[in-house]
Amino acid sequence: MARKRFKLTRGILFIWLFLAGLILFLSPQKITNKCQFVFTRIFQLPLKISRSISLSAQTNRNDSDVISRRKFIKLQNHLANLQAQLTQTEEKIDQVTGMKNRSGLEGAKILLADVITASLNSLHCEIIINRGQTDGLSTDMFVLGDNSIIGTISQLSERTAKVKLLTDPAFKLPIKVNGLKTNKILQGAGNNTAKIKLLQTKYKINVGDYVYACKKPGYLDQPMTIGKIKKYTRNEESSLLWDVTVEPACNIQNLNSVAVIIMNPQIQAR
Amino acid sequence: MRWLRFAALIIITAIIQEGLINILAITKLNIKPDLLIILLVFFAIYSSTYEAIITSFAIGFLADLIGHSAMGPHMLSFGILGTLLAHLVGVITVRKMPYQALLIFITASLTNISTHLLNALKIQQHTQNAYTVIFGIALYSAILGPFLFLPFAWWMRIKTQQLSKR
């Protein structure tokens, strides 16, 4: 019996592939993201090597600047964190004199992770790290780079996690500018910057002022530095508001490893 | 078409695109060439329409995998534009480098715009300078692209002087 050979025409092939793309597009992101995580895990080594080569090439390009400067920024951020901690402690002592106080990150677990890939442009600012659910991570945990907050965990798989950086246009976080007694919202703006929303011109700010992430019970028990004010101008639409641009406190692009803050490791472990 | 070579080529290109290509990034907007779009145009020019449809969707799928946003937008826009391009190349001949560069520029612009719009449809987000970045990537890819056709053709064992029969 002659076997009939089945051959797809160009039209049918296109429709099939188009439908596959459409199904992928309409599927929930939680499910489709697993494909991205699987790809990252399979090609983890070549992706890391590729990134390391590009980083080392960039480091060689401005050798005199990066090496000493990075250490300097790291220490500067550490100092800023200590200052914030000190201010907070002083406020607490004033408020509840006599009560026992404990350090903000006491008992917290700092989990180190390697950066597998990074996407930093005006459309997306995210990194993928080699730690996941099995390491006790969960979404919304804060991620540190050179002692400053660089973002939060946005998506998780068993062994990898996506970190939404503070410069990502979809990133929002309550913050406090050093010296001001008001909390505002910081939103990513791409291109290694973020903006502070709705800060009235009655508040005095300066270029170089530190910006701190506010406390978030269960995730961050003390304010931590997030960046510095890069520039500020009057808002074009409302002259009563500042248009404040913030730059991250560390060079995110050059980070090879980061640290995740797990505030309650015992609870996470259960 | 040598499909194993094709699979190896797009995976290697994706890995380079994800890390190594940062060496070539310029300006504060971090503009870098899009190797996958260059590859898309290459296969649309130098393979049959049937193969170009498959390669376009496959490259789009891989772009989604290395992308840090939702899955699907790249596959759809790469697939549709790659197919259109393959049909167009069946009518007109694109042999000279300036024409190839122009084709890469137009394809990169349209593909990135449609991907950006599809992404915005799925994930509500406002981005600044998005179109400046898209234009920058398209221009950079157009300048670099035609020079990469030669190594791509060598790897795929395709003779660039002769357009394949459709």
Characterization of the model:
Chain A is of the alpha+beta class and 270 residues long. Chain A has five helices and twelve strands. Chain A has helices at residues 10-26, 29-42, 44-61, 63-95, 265-269, and strands spanning 109-120, 125-129, 142-145, 148-156, 161-165, 172-177, 183-190, 193-200, 210-213, 224-234, 241-248, 257-262. Chain A has a six-stranded antiparallel beta barrel. In chain A, strands 6-7-8-11-10-9 form a six-stranded antiparallel barrel. The N and C termini of chain A lie far apart (64 Å). The mean pLDDT of chain A is 82. Chain B is mainly alpha-helical. Chain B has a single domain (3-20, 31-156), classed as Orthogonal Bundle (Arp2/3 complex 21 kDa subunit ARPC3). Chain B is built from six helices and no strands. In chain B, α2 (35-46) packs antiparallel against α3, α4 (73-91) packs antiparallel against α5 (97-122) and α5 (97-122) packs across α6. The longest helix of chain B has 27 residues, at 130-156. The model of chain B has no long low-confidence stretch (mean pLDDT 87). Classes of the chains: A alpha+beta (270), B mainly alpha (166). The interface between A and B is large, with 48 and 48 residues.
Could you give the topology of this structure?
The complex is a heterodimer of chains A (270) and B (166).
Chain A: H1 10-26, H2 29-42, H3 44-61, H4 63-95, E1 109-120, E2 125-129, E3 142-145, E4 148-156, E5 161-165, E6 172-177, E7 183-190, E8 193-200, E9 210-213, E10 224-234, E11 241-248, E12 257-262, H5 265-269
Antiparallel strand pairs in A: 1-2, 1-12, 2-5, 3-4, 3-12, 4-5, 6-7, 6-9, 7-8, 8-11, 9-10, 10-11
Chain B: H1 3-18, H2 35-46, H3 49-66, H4 73-91, H5 97-122, H6 130-156
Helix pairs in contact in B: 1-3, 2-3, 2-4, 2-6, 3-4, 4-5, 5-6
